[in-house]
Amino acid sequence: MRGKKLMVALLCAATMLAVIPTASAQGLKFLGVGSSAVFNTLAVAAFNDLCIPSGGASNCHHYSVSGKTGGGNNFAQVVDSRGSGAIPPEGGNLWVVWDNSTSPATVWAYISVDTIVGNRSFFAVPRAQLQVDSSVTSGNAKNLVAAALFDDGHGNSVADDASLPAGILSVIQTTFTAAGSDIRVEDAKLGTNRLLTNLDTAKLTGLGYNQSGASCTPNATFPTLIGCPIKSVYDSTVATPVQYAIKGKDPFTNLTAFKYTQIDVGAFPVMVYFNVSDTAGLGDTDGSGNPLFKNINRFTLASVLNGTLGRAEDLDAGLAGNTTPLTVILREALSGTMNTTEFSIPRSLAMQTSAPALASQEAGINLGNSCNPGVNCPNPLFLPGPGGSHRERGVGNGQVTNGVSNNTVGGVKNTANSIAYGFFSYGNVSKFTGSAGTVRYATLDGVDPINANYGTNVFQAISYGPGQLPACNAPCPVAGGTSFPNVRNGSYPAWTIVRIITDNSGSNKTNAQALITAAQAEVNNKVPDFVPFVCTTSGKCTGEPGLQVFHSHYKITGIATTPHNGNTSAAAAGGDIGGAAFLIQADVDFNNDTGKELTGYRQ
Fold first, then answer.
1. Rounded CA separation 506/487 (Å)
2. Which DSSP helix (H) or strand (E) runs through 231?
3. Which residues pair with 420 in a beta bridge?
4. How many CB atoms lie within 10 A of CB 434?
5. Is the bond leading into 380 cis (omega within 30 degrees of zero)?
6. Is 533 within 8 Å of 266 (Cβ atoms)?
7. Is the pTM of this model over 0.85?
8. From the centroid of its chain, how far is CA 575?
């Protein structure tokens, strides 16, 4: 069943399930939607730690798919039934793990989309659903997660099954039970509200994606609830801002919002990447192969992202006199990566105070302006800057780092003298690692995001030069407590905790917690992509202390909040994106001394 018939069936089912969010399909344990940061690690945890121990090697299977069918449909997509089908579906990458092809007792699945899309999909009433094209039952496996990461329990790697059994397909086409989010629920709601608020050029509190203009056409029926599609400069990919509620009533259906909880998974750093293929530009070296561009401070980076600066010499003193223009690549404002970077760098408290009209990556972007594509457009973004530079936008991490059109155009990997940002993971950097790659990374305020010191990158006994990205020929274990030392000690200025959002009670919460616990125990042994927020003190996680720092939280005007991590204190509620970093012990001591918590502090 495909196309319109499948869409109608899913929309009807979504309406019936509006008040039954708990997974009720046979064997379904977890159906997640959202951040790509935990895509790999959740798949590995579901297979290695939950499926194999209970179902055995002969019964456990996995499958993944991405992209579009030959007919141009998404293989996997998110369907939000609110607004009578007015909300466009969002395509993404999907993995599925199951223990029996005909009568599954346990099935886990996850589709990666923008973080805010994941939040909206979970909070929509009725909840959004997963839709998968039936052609997956005939093949199309993509092995999106490396086979070496999947262990059959006997030390053997396991590749994707060639196709997805029809029985498993029927199980996963239902409402989501959880969302993966790079940012807190309150911060994601703020991101949505900014997009769907009239453009505020003075303070950039509203970005104007709700206003009709030359580069913007909101939904005619729901102009305040469904905004203009945010377009990629590289291809036809779009991301659409859509309103939802985290408390009170859903703005489309007037049904009561679901009660939820946020479970912290682990911390990821945002890194600054740049292309070094032009030896006369950002590829200029000190003669020994090391890039002259090594470090960027937060205020310089803020000015690059907002379009104020745009020449190579603006980045680092080592490039003095080098006027090569830059290509600055941004992400869409529905991205958790974009919002983490936004509030840590260009929209820090210092920038909002000193230069409010420039305190955003969206500075100078007015969707009301007419344009010529590829010359001066706000959407798809292509805005000229100083010295012949320009800013452009990719939708999704892959476009920003790896490029599109078979990885031959776009992105840092394929654009000389380009600079961008992204969450580090070994999968994200796998296409440009080592000395042969055309991409390097810079420290931020002199602090390295993945190593103790820049230029001392040693991984699996392989030494890399300054700024070279490490490879992981999985498994690539690290000792507990050693990964990302400058994130762990709070000195690196741009990082976030990825969360899983799910119901505040019941089987969805129980199953999500089991998967998170497995992922935290697995990460150091397979691919150390993040700092576990907490970790078990026995078995695989011996010696792993977990994350010992946190971001100060603060109230966001106009957005209902819930306390952090089960804390009942009102002070523990609110956003934390761009909050100041403190040691957890410091908060404990402050609480013991004053009876209060370290809240309200901003970068």
1. 33
2. strand 230-231
3. 273
4. 13
5. yes
6. yes
7. yes
8. 17
Distance, in Å, from the CA atom of 440 to the CA atom of 464, rounded to the nearest integer, reads: 11
Report the 3 state secondary structure along 317-331. Answer: HHHCCCCCECEEEEE
Chain length of the chain: 603
What Rg do the C-alpha atoms of the chain give, in angstroms? 23
Contact 127, 68 (CB under 8 A): no
Q: What is the pLDDT of residue 51?
A: 94
How far is the C-alpha of 275 from the C-alpha of 269, rounded, in Å?
Answer: 19
Can you tell me the distance from the alpha carbon of 471 to that of 277, in angstroms, rounded to the nearest whole number?
19
547 touches 266 (CB < 8 A): yes
In the numeric block, the tokens 């991101």 are attached to 191
3-state secondary structure of 76: strand
Identify the band that residue 1 occupies on the pLDDT scale cut at 50, 70 and 90: very low
Distances 19 to 254, 256, 281, 471, 512 between C-alpha atoms, Å: 13, 9, 57, 46, 20
Sequential DSSP letters for 522-573: HTTTS---SEESS--SSGGGTT-----EEEPPB--TT----BGGG---GGGB
Residue 11 tokens read as: 């929309």
Q: Tokens 């957005």 belong to which residue?
A: 559
Better-predicted residue by pLDDT, 459 or 123: 123
pLDDT digits 0-9 by tens, 414-434: 999 999 999 998 888 888 887
pLDDT tens-digit readout, 468-491: 888 887 788 888 899 999 999 999
CA-nearest of 151, 42, 17 to 96 is 42
C-alpha to C-alpha distance for 423 and 435, rounded to whole angstroms = 21
- Which H or E run includes 174? none
**CA–CA dist 519, 263 (Å, integer):** 13
Whole-number pLDDT of residue 117: 98
In angstroms, how far apart are the furthest CA atoms of the chain?
Answer: 67
Checking DSSP bridges between strand 28-34 and strand 107-112, what pairing results, if any?
parallel
Q: In this structure, how many other beta carbons lie within 10 angstroms of the beta carbon of residue 69? A: 15
> Distance of CA 298 to CAs 82, 277, 343, Å?
40, 25, 11
The amino acid that residue 456 corresponds to is T
Between CA 520 and CA 541 the distance in angstroms is 8
| Domains assigned to the chain | 1-180+505-539 (no CATH), 265-488 (3.40.190.10), 551-603 (no CATH)
Tell me, what amino acid is at 137? T
**pLDDT tens-place string over residues 91-112:** 999 999 999 888 888 999 999 9
First-to-last CA distance in the chain? Answer: 51
Helix (H, G, I), strand (E, B) or coil at 267: strand
**Would the pLDDT of 10 be above 60?**
no
Q: Would you list the DSSP string of 452-486?
A: SSTT--EETTEE--TTPPPP--S-----TT-SSHH
Cα–Cα distance between 261 and 240 in angstroms, integer? 25
Q: What is the mean pLDDT of residues 504-521?
A: 95
